[in-house]
Write a structure and sequence with these properties.
Ribosomal Protein L22, Chain A; 6-stranded mixed sheet; globular
Length: 200
């Protein structure tokens, strides 16, 4: 399992000022909103928050921003020809967005609930080494380790613009080629959630 350092998540709009400061100082930021019951509404609300964040940080009118995404490709914001990497993740009760001014970004979020078929999922998608590492944990810790491994994988894939496919040595090699030295950061989230931010 990769080593994680912690990364803050700024509640939007309550911590708007802190999010803007982080984006300018660290060149990346993660914002979170309490998700609306309807996923489409949560998606719209999160995109509006990202536009407001970029508008405030870059001192540009919101109408100059375009948020673009399509299946199989990483999302980005376009501002006067400049592309800024974005990544989104939605889970019941919470939605997150990551912005990186200086390169790619990936983010993923799940609730710390072990799916009934978690061992099969781990074996198929996380691979033999991570599956074995999770099984070695005390039962009370397995959900947390599975959640971090899963969100770490999903965030790495999003950072590379790749789809989720079953584990293979070839997939791992492709990820290593695209992200030879990625930084995985565990997100500071409420106890029910786990999430990972990945930066190149």
């Amino acid at each position: 399992m990769p080593a994680f350092s912690l990364s803050p998540v700024f509640s939007w709009p309550e911590q708007q000022g802190l999010a803007v400061q982080s984006l300018l100082a660290q060149r990346h930021a993660v914002i979170g909103i309490a998700a609306l019951p309807a996923r489409d509404l949560a998606r719209q609300q999160l995109r509006l928050a990202v536009a407001e964040l970029l508008s405030a940080a870059l001192a540009c009118p919101p109408q100059q921003l375009r948020l673009l995404s399509r299946a199989g490709h990483a999302a980005y914001a376009q501002i006067e020809g400049r592309k800024i990497a974005l990544s989104f993740s939605h889970e019941r009760g919470l939605s997150l967005a990551a912005v990186n001014l200086d390169g790619a970004v990936g983010i993923d979020l799940i609730r710390k609930e072990m799916p009934p078929d978690w061992e099969t999922l781990a074996r198929l998608y996380l691979g033999p080494a991570q599956s074995a590492a999770i099984l070695r944990q005390a039962p009370a810790q397995q959900a947390c380790h599975f959640a971090l491994a899963w969100t770490g994988l999903e965030a790495r894939l999003k950072c590379c613009g790749l789809e989720l496919i079953e584990w293979s040595p070839q997939r791992e090699q492709a990820l290593q080629q695209k992200l030879p030295a990625c930084r995985c950061r565990e997100l500071e989230l409420p106890p029910a959630y786990a999430g990972t931010l990945v930066l190149p």
